[in-house]
Design a protein that fits this description.
By secondary structure, the chain is of the alpha+beta class. The protein is 29% helix and 19% strand. A 16-stranded antiparallel sheet has the order 4-5-3-2-1-6-7-8-16-15-14-9-10-11-13-12, with helices on both faces. The radius of gyration is 28 Å and the shape is globular.
Length: 608
């Protein structure tokens, strides 16, 4: 069953069927993600946990859930029926779990252990057929993330399918200039996709042993601390599934930023005792807000944070998260302009750069789909360079279908033209004026005029490609397609050939094939490949490309590698599990769009 398309629900005809439901634009009004729900935890009086106040049971939200994938974004936390409405799981109806602070231990929820679906349960499914793909260093990163997040077994996995509930940004102060969140209880589609990916790798497919993944997180944070802290006795009875940290502006009279942490807890009194034991006499402040313990350096700081309007009330934060979409298992947000003001080098030495960052905000998320993992992000409010036009859409999708890898950038020529003085200044600071010296030599030896000739060569769009055919031969096919004035660009290429030859004649170098077109110039290491690049290809129709570069039709920058086409270059030296794991990787794509001061990016790693 696909995590993207639950039973009985098909995507609208204008939306991609393989795209995760949470990423699709939602109809109707949009709401900030993670806002407190009606019928959820009662608001606590600011400044600390109040004993004796009755609370509704954990999970006793009162509003019914809309069908999966049809609720407005930002209301995933509402109560929902079991994924796909399967009655055989025998889970207690959502909203009737035990009261706050009395949940059963992870992996011990009744009815799930024996009757969960095979791919989540203790039984091992048939191993997926080994297919091609691969890039070794990614395995360790993905495996470590999977082990940390889903180190638990099938019973624990299914017990986490509900997601929803209060998020750290619902309780952290709205004065934050930065925020990071880790969610071990994300939306159901994220968990299902993560489990599916985990089954592909030998390092993770047998790691579902019923262990609470919070244990791994605690051990990581506590590995150098006193061994007298016992997770089972001192931490597990109160630790929830979500953690957030907010970075605050420096207090009056201080140059250092402040920090407030938010730890989800299931029992406030046990949390007080456990945190005190972990602190081991170190001073700190603690207060409770909804089902979170807020922790700061002093009691005054944490009391102020507990009384402040939450981060979700900050319009820019809520807007940015809505634009970002699914926040996955890890997310972050930063007011880059305010953070830059805390960096002396930027604030005092480069006021022009600070002005460009003044209103810049950045948000990102690590999230999963059935066939890939994605790091997605957006930026908002940057100051566009004066005189810069809108960059063109890249032509990467028009490359030949046999392309193994390519990079494509639009607007580089404009950037160099407008920022040449700043580029030289930065080069002077980092390389002792080396760039200016090179420019002078190029002018003297070959008549190369900078930055004008460089602007011509970069053009409105520059796409560099490597073909998949001939990779194991003596001469791989390499070429570039430039959207520029072809006559001027050919003159510049001639100057470069003359400069690289060293003797002023251009001899001794392999010839560069050139194919001018209507507003384009193609360069390649063979005339055959140059002619192929000059024609419109069908890479955009390739399934791997479509998934790796999700918005190729609007991307102004993109890079793509089809790992299945290049695996023969490295798999022949691999053996055993390393080879098996590498074959599970399919492709890598990074893409971005930019319009004025707003931008977005996506980095995807695809699996076979």
């Amino acid at each position: 069953m696909s995590a993207n398309n639950p039973p009985g629900q098909s995507p609208p005809p204008d939306q991609e069927p393989d795209r995760t439901i949470a990423y699709r634009p939602q109809n109707g009004p949009s709401y900030p993600q993670g806002n407190p729900q009606q019928g959820g935890y009662p608001q606590q009086p600011p400044g600390g946990y109040q004993q004796g106040q009755p609370q509704q049971g954990y999970g006793q939200q009162s509003q019914p859930q809309q069908p999966y994938g049809q609720q407005p974004y930002g209301q995933q936390g509402q109560p929902q029926q079991g994924y796909g409405h399967q009655p055989t799981y025998q889970q207690q109806p959502y909203g009737q779990q035990q009261a706050y602070g009395q949940q059963q231990p992870y992996g011990q929820q009744p009815g799930w252990q024996q009757q969960g679906p095979d791919f989540l349960g203790a039984g091992q499914p048939p191993a997926p057929p080994a297919r091609k793909g691969g890039k070794g260093w990614l395995i360790a990163v993905i495996a470590a993330l999977v082990v940390a997040l889903v180190g638990g077994g099938g019973a624990y996995a299914v017990s986490m399918l509900s997601g929803g509930g209060t998020q750290p940004h619902d309780v952290l102060p709205g004065s934050a200039i930065g925020y990071v969140r880790l969610d071990l209880d994300p939306a159901a589609n994220q968990k299902l996709a993560l489990f599916s990916i985990a089954r592909k790798f030998t390092a993770t497919k047998d790691s579902f042993r019923g262990e609470d993944p919070r244990t791994a997180l605690f051990d990581l944070l506590n590995k150098n601390a006193d061994a007298k802290i016992n997770y089972a006795a001192d931490v597990e009875p109160w630790l929830g599934s979500r953690i957030g940290v907010a970075v605050l502006p420096p207090a009056n009279g201080s140059e250092e930023p402040g920090f407030v942490g938010a730890i989800q807890v299931t029992d406030a009194e046990k949390a007080k005792a456990g945190i005190a034991k972990i602190a081991d006499g170190d001073k700190y402040g603690i207060a409770f807000r909804e089902d979170y313990a807020l922790i700061a350096a002093t009691q005054a700081e944490v009391d102020q944070a507990a009384q402040a309007a939450p981060l979700t009330d900050l319009p820019t934060f809520s807007d940015d998260l809505n634009d970002l979409g699914e926040t996955g298992v890890l997310s972050f947000w930063m007011d880059a302009g305010k953070v830059a003001q805390l960096t002396p080098q930027v604030a005092t030495q480069d006021p022009a750069a600070l002005a460009q960052l003044k209103n810049l905000r950045v948000a990102g998320a690590l999230r999963f789909d059935e066939g890939y993992v994605e790091l997605a992000g957006i930026s908002r409010g940057a100051q566009a360079l004066e005189g810069m036009g809108e960059p063109e859409v890249t032509g990467i999708g028009k490359l030949p279908a046999s392309t193994a890898g390519a990079v494509s950038f639009s607007g580089l020529g404009d950037v160099v033209s407008k920022q040449w003085a700043q580029i030289l200044k930065s080069a002077d600071q980092t390389a002792g004026g080396g760039l200016q010296q090179f420019a002078d030599q190029a002018q003297q030896q070959a008549g190369l005029a900078l930055p004008a000739d460089l602007v011509t060569l970069l053009g409105k769009n520059l796409t560099v490609a490597v073909d998949g055919t001939g990779l194991d031969g003596d001469q791989p096919k390499i070429g570039a397609r430039i959207v520029t004035d072809p006559a001027k660009a050919q003159e510049v290429v001639g100057k470069i050939e003359k400069l690289l030859a060293g003797d002023g004649t251009g001899g001794g170098l392999p010839p560069i094939a050139k194919v001018p077109g209507d507003g384009t110039l193609v360069l390649a290491n063979s005339q055959e490949y140059a002619a192929e690049l000059a024609k419109d290809g069908t890479l955009a129709d390739d399934e791997s490309f479509q998934i790796a570069i999700p918005d190729a039709g609007n991307a102004t920058a993109a890079a793509y590698v089809d790992l299945n086409k290049i695996e023969k270059l490295y798999l022949q030296s691999m053996q055993g599990e390393a080879r098996t794991n590498l074959q599970q990787l399919r492709a890598v794509g990074i893409s971005g769009t930019q319009s004025g001061g707003d931008a977005s990016f996506s980095l995807r790693v695809l699996f076979d």
